[in-house]
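Structure (tokenized):
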């Protein structure tokens, strides 16, 4: 009969392992979604920064041409 206790403990252990695996997969899904949002936001901000830099270059070149 001691093997019954071992089987029960094995079943409980496998069940806990399965629950932890499911929870970990859910958390990884949330992390991936957050990663995509952050990458998108950083890309947008970098694009805006490039546009501002280009605008400043144009304004400075126009100002130089006007003062000469």
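Design, position by position:
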């Amino acid at each position: 009969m001691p093997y019954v206790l071992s089987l029960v403990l094995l079943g409980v252990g496998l069940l806990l392992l399965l629950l932890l695996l499911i929870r970990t997969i859910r958390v990884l899904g949330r992390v991936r979604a957050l990663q995509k949002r952050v990458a998108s936001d950083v890309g947008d901000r970098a694009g805006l920064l490039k546009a501002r830099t280009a605008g400043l270059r144009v304004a400075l070149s126009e100002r130089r041409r006007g003062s000469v």
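Reviewer-requested clarification: Helices lie at 2-67. The mean pLDDT is 94.
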